[in-house]
Task: structure prediction
Amino acid sequence: MLLLQVDIALIIEKLIIISVILMGSLGIAMYATWGERKVAAIMQDRLGPNRAGPMGLLQPLADGLKLFFKEEIIPDRSTRFIFILGPCLAMLTALMTSAVVPWGPDYIAPSGRTITFQVADINIGILFVFGVVSLGVYGVMLGGWASNNKFSLLSSIRAASQAISYELAMGISLIALIMMSGSLSLRDIVAQQHGFWDGNWFSWYVFKQPVGFIIFLTCAFAELNRAPFDLPECESELNMGYHQEYSSMKLGFYLFAEYINLFISSAIIVTLYFGGYNFPFMDQVATATGPLLFSIICILVLISKAVGMVLFFMFVRWTLPRFRYDQLMKLGWKGLIPLALANMLVTGMLVLWVFKS
Result:
């Protein structure tokens, strides 16, 4: 009976965490659209959204209502089931990636129960992220193919080849990080980056793996279909790309999935390379505050880092021009993959040298 009660309490705890992450991701994705338009306006000396609410803060709600009440159109010659499945799959995979992100340190409640701010602490967290990210491209591929539109089909082919090319470099760049950490668990990787300074060097992996971070970040741009690698939705060549035939909330799902992926990918980059919820002088802060307040501070630190990374993605989008497709593939196969292999070999030699010494 006691075991049953513990299981029910654990289920309730995880359901609450999942609900908070789900609603938080949707809220951040919704206002990321507002943020991107504001960033673009500032960089182009414009005002941006300023009509719906103060500073245009109600603009995402207005856009959401507009999409919700628009007419649903499914092309006659499309494959109906797969046409509907595409945006649903894109949305599902975007949300699933957040399951293994450690959002904060464990909190020990007054009752003695340990609350983990993570949906699932699995020892192959990085492999889970790669598996889900690999599935995410199927949402784009299925949507483009099922539309029975040649522009959409070409876009989905581009998305597939782009994802395959850059996932290779991304995976190889992470091998170097895994060799240094000795673990595939995101919680273990965050724990190894405790604070900011460790002995004679910085504890964050961005300082220990700068080349790997640059490769991973570049590949993230390609995986997210963000400029300058937004070839699957290249308006000048493909009209709107893979979601050309979509309308109403099906189009909304694709747009939401893009911004959810942007936020969750930023959180994963921060977790792997920027210490996650760790920050300088965190031990002193933990001593001066209670356990619950300290956990909340750590969660806010992680979210702040992720938002900062999202803003960086936005600045790059409105700064660099779009690559040509041949330039995109050349950079992936002839540039990033050899560089990632070289970084992996150098890291392996350094790890062996440190262990021997």
Observations:
- Residues 63-356 form one domain.
- The chain has one domain: 63-356.
